[in-house]
Amino acid sequence: MSGGRQPRYALFLWTCCLAAAEGGKLLVVPHDGSHWLSMHGVLQEMHQRGHEIVVVAPAVTLHIKEGAFYNLTRYPVPFQQKDLESHFRRMNHEVFEKLPFWKNFFKTRERLKTAAALLLSVCSHLVHNQELMTELGDEHFDAVFTDPFLPCGPIVAKYLSLPAVYFLHGLPCGLDFAATQGPCPPSYVPRGFSLNTDRMTFLQRVKNMLITLVQVFLCDFVYSPYVRLASDILKTEVTLMELLSYGSIWLLRSDFVKEYPRPIMPNMIFIGGINCAYTKPLSQEFEGYVNASGEHGIVVFSLGSMVSEIPMAKAMEIADALGTIPQTVLWRYTGKPPSNLAKNTKLVKWLPQNDLLGHPKTRAFITHAGSHGIYEGLCNGVPMVLMPLFGDQMDNAKRMESRGAGVTLNVLEMTSADLSKALKTVINDKSYKENIMRLSALHKDRPISPLDLAVFWVEFVMRNKGAPHLRPAAHDLNWFQYHSLDVIAFLLAIVLTVVFIAVKSYMFCCQKCFGKKGKAKKAPKSKSH
Amino acid sequence: MSGGRQPRYALFLWTCCLAAAEGGKLLVVPHDGSHWLSMHGVLQEMHQRGHEIVVVAPAVTLHIKEGAFYNLTRYPVPFQQKDLESHFRRMNHEVFEKLPFWKNFFKTRERLKTAAALLLSVCSHLVHNQELMTELGDEHFDAVFTDPFLPCGPIVAKYLSLPAVYFLHGLPCGLDFAATQGPCPPSYVPRGFSLNTDRMTFLQRVKNMLITLVQVFLCDFVYSPYVRLASDILKTEVTLMELLSYGSIWLLRSDFVKEYPRPIMPNMIFIGGINCAYTKPLSQEFEGYVNASGEHGIVVFSLGSMVSEIPMAKAMEIADALGTIPQTVLWRYTGKPPSNLAKNTKLVKWLPQNDLLGHPKTRAFITHAGSHGIYEGLCNGVPMVLMPLFGDQMDNAKRMESRGAGVTLNVLEMTSADLSKALKTVINDKSYKENIMRLSALHKDRPISPLDLAVFWVEFVMRNKGAPHLRPAAHDLNWFQYHSLDVIAFLLAIVLTVVFIAVKSYMFCCQKCFGKKGKAKKAPKSKSH
């Protein structure tokens, strides 16, 4: 927005930021999986700006690997690469099992419990690794950059007394609202897993309220072990809120083109779409596929970095549907190829998703509705067929569907015909393309790119040793003080006392006045008897 | 923050913004006084970016004048320049009258009523000027840019069906929170005129709650006439909330270095400090004063654009105090010079406040704590002696004082010695300079300058015809729906019904079981008799 002239004010700022950008030291405590992949861009930019970056990760990981722009410090964990991979393969297959609601609920809970236990042990092996922790302390970092989805990073930051920057899409069970002191009225802010939009019927509001009432207990089994771990390591009793609210700045991979507008807090910085920041030209292989697709163009199909194969019966159903459209489908799939695969469908072990979505010949995107995929579809303006599998994916899908930018399918219930119909709808019904293009334009119409914004705030925390001026005083109140219950009780007590005294006085006066008269009347009466 | 490399994402954005910056048309409905002066910078920048700007203003104004970068359209009002000036002169003198609390309260109310009636008549003469309104309608503006402090601009915007961008410091009586649907817990968000900070004692929280309960009625006399005017002009019943919530984007001249952190809404954009954006070199006259001040430097003294003279007794008291410090004092004062004026004090009819505050020889700033002055002191890192007079100035002063960046004086109660002591304190006690420099650095440490940010969002609303994706669904709920009272009542009714049925069933069972036994026992008894 600078035009030709640079206001003096901006020059002030610039001097300050450039000065601080020299030689900072950042400690990164990442999460494996797509969470790590989207952090990548920020670290690369930080490195280019002259900061030294140290990433601590367990010895066994899925996606965290050596990188040119950071030093990777590994610590031992009590499992092997094959254990981790088989764990996730098993999880992937279980996701596709069709079970009755309650059975599914408990099975999901069990699955999450197993995963949580595994990840907790990873964290425990980091914070109990005395040698490594001492080494990290000696490095004198400026800040910790972490995803607090599981609060291992916050424990490390608190232990090392370093300010922390959080990088996340959101926390489950409303923990992000609670930890930032962000009000979250259940009347128009849809709760996770509710499938509500921001405009709800009465019964949807009832559902939203019921989820609000129980959500605090739903995540307890995942988070309470971290509280115990933190209390143990920090040698003082801490609460989950103390742990999560430790972050100075919350970089939220979120944007109000996807999310519904709601109250936010000053230390929340919205950087949704940061993962679309960089695109590269397509490789020869993919350029070849796209060019060969002719006038019909291509459809990109991926179920995310965690799910690369699915049960054969489902794969065959999907393959059948993909054969019914004239577009070339590029499907990221590592399993055994379905026997009914049509000629238009190319299976690839990996695909440059964002680059392909950015190609003008891309007509649709079949996605599991993970937050990264949603924002890549949004940035590039590609209508979506949404097949959510777990976590926040159902809600992500609902948001895109409610805005007319995609069609949601239940991957367990859908038939081949449903998928075929959905694909033809988003490709041929012009309203889907128009809606996603409108959303895409709004999403990209920002005063500063999300990557630059994220880098600015990481450096802000590094140079200012946190951001205490953005921390609301609400953190120092307990729940009844926060809701002014003590004040209300006090004022009510005064009102009631005044009313009580007034009534008593009135009655006393009445008694005095009328009582005397009564007596006066009675007296003569008795006398007259 | 861009470094050497420009991410592709930012290029996307840039193309979009530059394209839209061509030839937009902006209608400006300003407020006279300092509110207008701070809008100036945005209009200048908008003009430089190729937009056509039309400012509508009454024929009689204090500060709104012809400008090179906008077309000024005047409309007739039923008073003369001398009436307006004498009105404000009278107001200025009344501010310095020392009265008992209640007398002062009612006198202030009366004064505000007179001012409000005058300004309402200005608005009425605009919106009832059928010829002008038709002309404005025919111009096909892209948006209205207005200060909604008195909601004349919103009426014009609604009448012309144009999106509106608001530019303001805040609204009184919590109307800004109410109109944006921003939650505002009285437990830690201090209310206007409370003089509380964000950390309150129990009794301060009681005071805050009491103000919360009554504030809605306090402003009614100012705003309800606008609601009647709007309903009349728009030919439909509107509420104050509908009128104020019409703004797509709220550009708030506010910043969390001055304000306490609190919940905000996605369409609030914080551009505090925008008025410090441009500085010019000092004129020869002022350069001369500064150079002649020697090692002691200067003190800048201004009570704002509205108060340029004060009663003689008070002026003499102040002049006396100013003579006790070694600094040269530049005092903006248009009244008769006090006879005891010391040699170090120079009276000037006008002073380039921001440029003087930016001079390294400036040691202190005596200010009435208007929002503009506060931010200019903050940007330039100058400790302040705060002499609040009316409106939000007491609260502004409290915020600076609570952060150790200034000393507040009650201008009516203070003696010459108090002012002298306060000046010596902020100049000689290093903590004041250190605190204001720390705040100043934080205030200027932003990813984008407030002026660029403001211009971006005005253009955003122009090119996107508003910002409906940032409007919370809460606007469509009534108050009991918003607070989920209907849902709570429904759930309570279910719980009570279930409890009632359970208790009844239990009692019925008991009666059946024990009742029979009882009867069974009784029966033989009766038989035995």
Automatic annotation (TrEMBL), chains A, B:
Q: Which reaction does it catalyse?
A: glucuronate acceptor + UDP-alpha-D-glucuronate = acceptor beta-D-glucuronoside + UDP + H(+)
Its signal peptide is 1-23
The record's annotation in PROSITE patterns points to: UDPGT (PS00375)
- Cellular location(s): Endoplasmic reticulum membrane; Membrane
**PANTHER family per the UniProt record, alphabetical:** EG:EG0003.4 PROTEIN-RELATED (PTHR48043), UDP GLUCURONOSYLTRANSFERASE FAMILY 1 MEMBER A1 (PTHR48043:SF161)
Does the keyword Secreted belong to this entry? no
Q: What is its main location?
A: endoplasmic reticulum
Q: Could you say which protein family the record assigns here?
A: Belongs to the UDP-glycosyltransferase family.
EC number from the UniProt entry: 2.4.1.17
InterPro entries of this UniProt entry? UDP-glycosyltransferase, UDP_glucos_trans, UDP_glycos_trans_CS
**Matches recorded under CDD domains:** GT1_Gtf-like
Per UniProt, the keywords (alphabetical) are:
Endoplasmic reticulum, Glycoprotein, Glycosyltransferase, Membrane, Signal, Transferase, Transmembrane, Transmembrane helix
Transmembrane segments annotated in the record for this chain: 487-509
> Which cellular component appears as one GO term in the record?
endoplasmic reticulum membrane
Q: How does it sit in the membrane?
A: Single-pass membrane protein
Keyword check for Ligase: no
Q: Name one GO molecular function term.
A: glucuronosyltransferase activity
Q: What is this protein called?
A: UDP-glucuronosyltransferase
